[in-house]
Write a structure and sequence with these properties.
Shape of chain A: globular
Oligomer: homodimer
Order of helices and strands of chain A: HHEEEHEEHEHHEEEEEHEHEEEHH
Distance between the termini of chain A: 22 Å
Helix content of chain A: 25-40%
Number of helices of chain A: 10
Largest sheet of chain A: 6 strands, mixed
Mean pLDDT of chain A: 95
Low-confidence stretches of chain A: none
Largest interface: A-B, 66 and 66 residues
Chain lengths: ~300, ~300
C-alpha cells in the first residue's frame, strides 16, 4: 500500500457540495456544534497534550477578529473550521487558555501529534497562509474577499477569482552503484550538520521527471537517467506538494552549485543506514516527519533496485 | 523509459546561474543573435509551416511594447526569450509578418509542431500568462516589477517576492475488472461528445493519491483503492502540471456530481480500444496530445495490471 506521510492522511471530508452553498456555510459558522482551530502567526493551537486545540463557536464568536474562518470539512457531520487570530494582541487571554493549551510551530507540533491530525494542520496552515498573503488582487490591485468558505478569493473590482496555491516540488534520492547523493543547502541544515535529498520547485513547462534531472544537474552537476516516482507529501511551509522520486545517476563527478549548496556528496549504504538510525556521528539525515527520510530508507532497503 | 508527452521535452537549458546575473541578462536582451518568440493574447507566433516563429532582436527592438521579455533559456549558447506583444493594435503589421507567419492557439499549434518545440510553448505560455495576471502584489496591492528574466516579480512597496505558479492536477484512469471509468465534465467535452479520464486540482494538505481518491468520490461516487503513478505532463492552460495515475476501483455504483459532470460511465476495453483508434462511432476520447489518451492506452494494453 501507499506510504502515508506526516501532513497527509487528513480524515476530514472536504465536503465539496456543501462548500458551494453560502446558506449552509453561514449556518455552519453559527452552529454551536461546529469546531474551530485557531492559528496565531501560523502557529497552531494545541490542547493540553499534543492534540489539536479545537474551540467551540461560543468562544470564537466573541473574538475581535476581522477575517472570516476557513472551512476545512466535516467529521461525523460536524463542520470544522480554521481561524486566523493573528490580529489579537493577547490571544491566550482572549481565548482563556489554561491547562497547558498553547500555540506551537506546526513542524514541531506534527512530530508529536496523532498522524491524522497532521493532515488537518497541513490543510489549515496552507490555507491560512495563502489567505494572509493574498488579500489583494494580483490582476488589478484591489482588495479581495474570501468566498466559498475560503476555497476562492473574489475581486469585486475586476471579477477575477483566485484559488489557493500549491507548489509542486520534486525531491529525489539519486543513487549509483551502492552510493546515494545527499546535499546540504545553505541555511538551517548547515547549522544542524544535516544532509538531505536534493529538491527544487518544478518549473513551468516541465514534467516531474524533467524537474528531477534539471535540479540535480544544477545543484550537483550529476546527470540522471531513469526516474521512478516513490510517494508524495503535502508540506505546508507555506504550501508545497513534495513529489518524491528515486533516480539513477549516469555520471559520478559532483560539481556543486556554490550559490545554493554548502555541500553535496556521495554516501555509502552503510553510512546512510547508520544515519537513519541516528548512529552515525558524522552524518545526520532528516527524521521520519520528512519524505526525504523515507526516500533514503527505501534506497537503503534495496527498493530502488540499485 | 519514461513517456515524454506533448508540452514536455523542452530542449532549452534554463540557465539558472545566468538568470541570476542582471548584467548578463541585459546584454543577452541586446545581443543580435538572441531569439524572441512573440505571443499575442497567449497565441504563439508560427513560421510558415508549423514551427516556432523566432524573431531577431533587431525586429522586436522597435516594437512599442512596455513589458520586458521573459528569458526562457539557452540553446547552443544563444539566449531565447518569450515576448508578450498583446499591447500592439496591429501585431502582424508591426512585426512585418508574411509568407504564412501567423499567431495560433497553443493547443492547436502543439498538435502539428515538432515535439520538442511544444515544450518551449508550454514554458513560454505559462510564464507569460502568469505575468499577465500578476502585475500587482497580492500582499499589498502595489504594482510589481519583473526580475531575473521573469523568474520572479518583486514588490517595491512591501518587498514581497512572487514566483510563477504551477498548479498540480491529478488525472486518473480508474479501472475495475475489464472496465474503466470515463467522464464528461460540463463544457466543451459535451459539445464534442468526448469522454475523458477524471481529473481535478490537488488541494492544500493532500497527497497525490488522496487527491485521486477524493476527486473520483466527488465526481463519480466511486471508491478507489490502489493508486499508481503513470507519468506527468505540463499543461499550459494556464499553468498546470498534470499528474497521471491509474487507480483500482473498490466500488462500482456511479453517483454523478450534477454540478460539474454531464455524465460518468464504465466502458469496456473493446469500446475504449476502438475509441483510441477513432473507430468507435459512440465514443470519442482525447487525442495523443493529452495525457488522458496515454492513461487510457496504458490500461487498454494491460499495463495497469487489471
Amino acid at each position: 500500500m501507499t506510504l502515508v506521510h506526516r501532513f497527509a492522511g487528513n480524515p476530514l471530508d472536504r465536503a465539496d457540495a456543501e462548500r458551494r452553498d453560502d446558506g449552509w456555510l453561514a449556518a455552519a459558522e453559527q452552529d454551536p456544534a461546529s469546531r474551530f482551530l485557531p492559528f496565531y502567526n501560523l502557529d497552531v493551537l494545541l490542547a493540553g497534550g499534543a492534540t489539536l486545540g479545537w474551540t467551540p463557536a461560543s468562544t470564537v464568536r466573541w473574538l475581535d477578529v476581522d477575517v472570516p474562518p476557513v472551512f476545512l470539512g466535516l467529521a461525523d457531520g460536524i463542520p470544522h473550521f480554521a481561524l486566523d487570530i493573528s490580529e489579537l494582541e493577547q490571544p491566550a487571554r482572549d481565548l482563556g487558555l489554561e491547562n497547558g493549551w498553547r500555540f506551537q510551530d506546526c513542524r514541531m507540533a506534527a512530530m508529536a501529534m496523532p498522524a491524522d491530525e497532521t493532515g488537518i494542520v497541513a490543510q489549515a496552515r496552507a490555507q491560512l497562509s495563502w489567505h494572509g498573503s493574498h488579500r489583494f488582487c494580483s490582476q488589478c490591485g484591489a482588495r479581495t474577499e474570501q468566498r466559498k468558505g475560503g476555497h476562492v478569493r473574489h475581486c469585486p473590482q475586476c471579477n477575477a477569482e483566485h484559488f489557493p496555491r500549491t507548489d509542486p516540488v520534486a525531491i529525489m534520492l539519486i543513487h549509483d552503484d551502492g552510493r546515494c547523493l545527499l546535499g546540504q543547502p545553505k541555511g538551517p541544515l548547515v547549522r544542524m550538520g544535516m544532509y538531505s535529498a536534493l529538491a527544487g520547485f518544478i518549473d513551468q513547462g516541465e514534467s516531474i521527471e524533467e524537474a528531477v534531472r534539471r535540479e540535480v544537474r544544477e545543484e550537483a552537476g550529476i546527470e540522471v537517467g531513469e526516474v521512478r516516482y516513490h510517494s508524495s507529501q503535502p508540506w505546508p511551509f507555506p504550501s508545497s506538494l513534495m513529489i518524491g522520486c528515486l533516480g539513477r545517476a549516469t555520471s559520478t563527478e559532483i560539481r556543486i552549485d556554490d550559490a545554493e549548496m554548502a555541500d553535496v556528496r556521495w554516501f555509502t549504504r552503510d553510512e546512510v543506514s547508520a544515519a537513519l538510525n541516528e548512529e552515525n556521528p558524522d552524518l545526520k539525515v532528516p527524521g521520519s516527519v520528512a519524505i526525504a527520510h523515507h526516500l533514503i530508507k527505501s534506497w537503503v532497503n534495496g527498493e530502488a533496485g540499485g
